[in-house]
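Justification of resources, computational component.

The compute hours requested in this renewal are based largely on the per-chain cost of generating structure records like the one below. Each record pairs the submitted sequence with a full structure-token output. That output is archived, and it is also reused by downstream analysis tasks.
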Amino acid sequence: MAVISKEDFISSVADALQYISYYHPKDFVDAMNAAYEREANPAAKDAIAQILINSRMSAEGHRPLCQDTGIVTCFVKIGMQVQWDSDQTVQEMVDEGVRRAYNDQSNPLRASIVADPAGARKNTRDNAPAVVHIDMVAGDQVEVFLAAKGGGSENKSKMVMLNPSDDIAAWVEKTLPTMGAGWCPPGVLGIGIGGTAEKAAVMAKESLMGHIDIHELKARGAETTEEKLRLEIFERANKLGIGAQGLGGLTTVLDVKINSAPTHAASKPVVMIPNCAATRHVHFTLDGTGAAQLPTPKLEDWPEVTWEVGDNVKRVDLNTITKEETTSWKAGDTLLLNGKILTGRDAAHKRIKDLLDSGEGLPEGVDFRGRFIYYVGPVDAVGDEVVGPAGPTTATRMDKFTDMMLEKTGLMGMIGKAERGPATVDSIANHKATYLMAVGGAAYLVAKAIKQARVVAFEELGMEAIYEFDVEDMPVTVAVDSTGSNVHQSGPAIWQAKIEELDAELSK
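The structure output for this chain reads:
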């Protein structure tokens, strides 16, 4: 009979959360590298290259892969013969492990959890509590499956109650394009089928803990209903041409995972949850002999991918930028940004709106005239860092503020990740502004381009404060140009057509 001590459990959770903050699973790295090798769209290939370079940098530097270090989800499977040497519940022990990990001063992780979600939404400051699922199983061990799930991908979760005769693969094919690029493809789709609505959601999330093995499955052939469905969804999803970061390309989905359970005869609940480019999960077992020992990956497991400045890349001086220059940019152009930019995301935009509505005006030192705003909530700096990992957040969330910002503040343009909504694209065109896209999932790489950083307003908002960054050769893509031309619309459409042409050629 195993006796699991409180300290062994807590320290194992804390160590595991630090581990997954900077180590991608090897199967994910291998799958991304395979996607990189076969990608034919230069823009998508470039985005995957940045993600792979960022992954290796994070592994070397022990710093977060993504600035969104996630909400912690923990599946704990407790053997019926296990005894606990603890005065705390499993939930309390997991939460203590979260606090230790996220407040570790050698690698502090961003606290993103807010309490009172329908009201004040006050940050808990330690990323606790975690979401914990507990199962009692046979045996005398404790198995822990731990993940840190970013908000950008979690927000794209989809749920439907299908009729028993409805086609699940067709629903996925129809639904995936509506998710946009905020989940940072390419990634893994987790699908739960059956049970009840909440059971399907839990199964979908747990399926994401599995090993990426779709190509091995394809090689040996499907045997079960779930395996056949995995292959069908995988093929149909990748034929959509959405591609890396939604830019269009051959790989949208790296794998499809499915868990199912018996359900009511009148029901077919289906939940789809995507994992993003910051796929972070780990599994360990405790048997009473001590804390979990996680293997240290070898750096040679990462491919030697480089990112080089091409002849068509334009260097931009943001300190002297003019409207004439920005209106010359075309959707799809690659830029290297140099100079000063301001930051701001959800909470800062809400504050700005309230101040402008009240007639009070912007805070002292905040002037958006002729400038760009970067949608980001960075990780705290350590050592000699100017700022911690600082990748883009989903720009779509700021859509409802965009017209106000362009109309009332003199803002010239925006930098974020993923697509903008139709009304926002119209507003960008009407104001002759521009929207630039940085690669989601390359936060540590982006941070290396930031040479100075200071808080200029709303310091009490923590990572949601307004910063001024001084950047050097920060890579971005013109996603929406001043005419309203939009790569997140044109890219997938072009590549879906190209994939159809390729399939037609191969079938002859």
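The chain is about 35% helix and 25% strand. The two ends are 63 Å apart (CA to CA).
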